[in-house]
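call fold(seq) -> tokens
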Amino acid sequence: MELGTWDLEPRADRRAEGARLKSAAFAAHRAAVSGLFTFFTLAALVLGLGDARALALAMGGALLSLFLLTREGVRESLGAFAAPLATVIDLALLFCAMSLTGGALSPYALLLPAGVALSWHTEGKTASRFFAAASMLGVAALVVLGHLPTSTAAHLFPLLAVGLAAPVLLVALEVSTAGAADGAARAARSVARAAARPAPEARPQDSDEPVERDRDFEILHDLRSPLSVIRVYTELIQEAARRGELPNPDYLSNLTREIELAERLVEAPGPEEEAGPPAAQSAELVEILGSLATAYRLAHGRRIRIEFIAERPQLPVAAEPVALQRAFRNVLDNAIKYTPEGGEIRIRAGAAGPQAFVVVKDTGMGMSPEERARAFDYAFRGAGAVASGARGKGVGLAVTKEILEANGGKISLSSEAGYGSEVTIMLPFQRSAR
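ret:
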């Protein structure tokens, strides 16, 4: 009996929390839709578009629906019908306002794709699909009832743009979500495969025995960084939802970028699978390092300080962007792992003749001369790293060195036990970019 009670209480809490989040999302959706409609109506009244009295009544209807539908009692009495009813009211008011201010070519038409986006992020796919379909039908009805000319391209193209804006945005959202979900699934499958295989054993300081390379483990090692950042952005978005706020667009775009990176890491060929010289590619160091510094501050900023300084606004280099992501993340992960709480990591990027440089300096535990001499050996961990209790297999710096050298770069390390480490990376500038 006690076990049953212990098991049921968390479920009840989860159901209550889910209902609360759903109610908050509904209220946020209502506020955003009514706010946009009110703003457009006030602008129409100021500009003298349409019948002022009718537009004022429509605006009053939008505010009244916001007041009534966000009341807890009304919302509970309507149950599952609350969201569809709210969408129908939104569309009815919107098409009334459009008919008063130019029909299908009314400025209010801008609210059609906006409605799809809001429905997508707050009510889900089904609501956004309904809104897109109703938008297309409503525009068609306004064209027919308004007897607008469609015989010439000058008239037809604007009407097509208005009618297709909402469904095109819906398709774009569907495609982007499907791609992100597929990438996350592939990344998860790769993690599962790699986790099922034993990791290479780290070599002690006095061992020179060769270690067999494990491509799957290296993928797992590289995936840890984007997966940890994905978790941070997911938690931030969930926290915003709990407060009834719309997701931060920067968080959503960064989350998508991390998922895409995880997918590309999974699909990237290993050194033994690459054939011929690498194709010429370019990467922007300031953009890559800036986004990494932001993500790592969100993930670790409470424990350590992370500072990024760029001596130029742009530093384009001749290197593969995903490869650089792997290299920089390995270096930063090492710096964070061996820097105690309250420490500092400084990232500096600039130019040195025909090359760009990146310096990552930490205030961590540092290395002895013996450990520093073997820091880039595969699967090597020094006595200090082992004694710190930090988990690791000594793979990061070795893989980073291979990645950078394959892209025409170099890496060096200076360190002293108890005084931190400084990693310097040199990369050739993209041609004509100096």
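The two ends are 73 Å apart (CA to CA).
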